[in-house]
Structure to design on (444 residues):
């Protein structure tokens, strides 16, 4: 019995933030400049009442409604977020109830950012291949917008809110469909991507302490701080090395991968990494123009879009690399939907005509 | 040897002219890049990409924080190349 990724769906909140909106607030940048440097045209932003748990619920609803899995068969929920509804209880427990999943279902939250989806696959594989679970929903849900200071363009241009729900199941095949994994951690980078206050180390919540940095961006201790230059340098150092380690672990070359999906951090950075690693553009899937960087949700959102676009075919060999806050990174290889399970992705025109029952 | 250093410096300055979108030859080593009109957080990312692409040097951002002039950036490249 092997674990395999068989389907993924995502949900984005309705609130739209375009480059034009941002340039009205930050007049010395143009929409074209933001697009050129980030690859992003618009992002979705959760409303004041909408939380990561709400987005998670919607994404799971889409996955369950697509018919790929009977909710009664889901026996584990893994939920990755850094913007949880509460310190306690665990979002995944509330989600079990909201989705009406059985009470014999396991559920846990884990706190990771941009590397979270790949780590989640590692946990799911462990649970399935040791016989602890058979059908797992891995949820990656994030509302970073709630951490952002309105006058900090360095992060408001990049981050968007969103959630994805991915089904990982036990399948009766021989070769591995998830893995091997390459993991990496360097906590010395913690201060370069951080929300300093709000947790137990600093419980102050006081907007009046906001300060301007050398580029005129404002933020307080309860806001997200990102040292973009440090993050970019970290990425250039760690990601190519992680990819090389994965190639060694899989005994594959880049040519053996049908699709490569990196965490969608920002397109400028991705292009730089792609050139450095010499990955052909046609196999390097980028999907962030209308979603921005949704943290741990970017990889499954990209996978879902790639499947809909026809770029990602059943049985395809896919490289996934997540990297960011922590610092934390992880890379793996998956076989996408190895048994070719059908999902409700086909458009209405291709659906078989329903048989009309004859009136008696 | 001295000739070679000057050539490398010339080439570096040409790259900086391009980066800061000024006419070729406009920038000199003592220029304070943080005072240039279009210096911002995005320009810094472009600089990091340029150094990686053209010099194979990943910018040591902490060291960079105290640099003021183009000569300081050039010194970071030279130091990184020596430690390779």
């Amino acid at each position: 019995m092997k674990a395999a990724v068989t389907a993924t769906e995502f949900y984005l909140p309705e609130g739209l933030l375009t480059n034009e909106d941002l340039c009205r607030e930050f007049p010395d940048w143009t929409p074209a400049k933001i697009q050129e440097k980030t690859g992003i045209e618009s992002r979705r932003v959760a409303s004041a009442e909408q939380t990561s748990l709400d987005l998670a619920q919607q994404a799971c609803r889409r996955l369950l409604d697509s018919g790929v899995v009977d909710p009664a068969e889901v026996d584990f929920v893994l939920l990755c977020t850094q913007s949880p509804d509460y310190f306690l209880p665990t979002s995944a427990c509330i989600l079990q109830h909201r989705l009406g999943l059985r009470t014999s279902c396991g559920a846990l939250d884990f706190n990771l950012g941009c590397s979270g989806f790949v780590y989640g696959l590692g946990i799911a594989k462990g649970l399935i291949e040791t016989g602890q679970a058979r059908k797992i929903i891995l949820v990656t849900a994030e509302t970073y917008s709630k951490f952002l200071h309105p006058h900090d363009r360095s992060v408001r241009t990049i981050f968007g809110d969103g959630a994805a729900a991915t089904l990982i199941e036990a399948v009766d095949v021989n070769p591995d469909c998830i893995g091997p994994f390459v993991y990496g951690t360097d906590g010395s980078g913690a201060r370069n991507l951080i929300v300093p206050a709000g947790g137990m180390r600093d419980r102050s919540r006081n907007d009046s302490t906001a300060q301007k940095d050398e580029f005129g961006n404002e933020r307080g201790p309860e806001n997200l701080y990102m040292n973009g230059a440090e993050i970019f340098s970290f990425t250039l150092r760690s990601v190519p090395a992680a990819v090389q380690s994965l190639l060694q672990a899989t005994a594959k070359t880049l040519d053996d991968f049908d699709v490569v999906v990196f965490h969608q951090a920002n397109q400028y950075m991705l292009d730089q990494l792609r050139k450095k690693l010499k990955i052909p553009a046609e196999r390097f899937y980028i999907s962030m123009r209308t979603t921005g960087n949704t943290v741990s949700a970017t990889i499954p959102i990209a996978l879902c879009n790639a499947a809909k676009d026809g770029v990602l075919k059943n049985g395809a060999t896919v490289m996934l690399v997540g990297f960011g806050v922590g610092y934390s990174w992880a890379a793996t290889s998956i076989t996408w939907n190895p048994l070719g399970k059908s999902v409700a992705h086909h458009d209405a025109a291709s659906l078989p005509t329903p048989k009309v029952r004859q009136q008696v | 040897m001295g000739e070679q250093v000057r050539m490398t410096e010339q080439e570096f300055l040409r790259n900086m002219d391009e980066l800061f979108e000024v006419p070729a030859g406009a920038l000199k080593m003592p220029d304070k890049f943080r005072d240039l009109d279009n210096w911002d957080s995005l320009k810094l990312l472009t600089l990091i990409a340029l150094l990686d692409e053209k010099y194979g040097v990943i910018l040591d951002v902490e060291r960079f924080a105290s640099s003021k002039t183009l000569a300081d950036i050039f010194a970071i490249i030279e130091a990184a190349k020596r430690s390779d």
User: Anything to note?
Assistant: The domain at 2-82 of chain B is CATH 1.10.1200.10 (Non-ribosomal Peptide Synthetase Peptidyl Carrier Protein; Chain A). Chain B is about 60% helix and 0% strand. The radius of gyration of chain B is 12 Å. The helical segments of chain B are 2-19, 41-55, 61-64, 70-82.
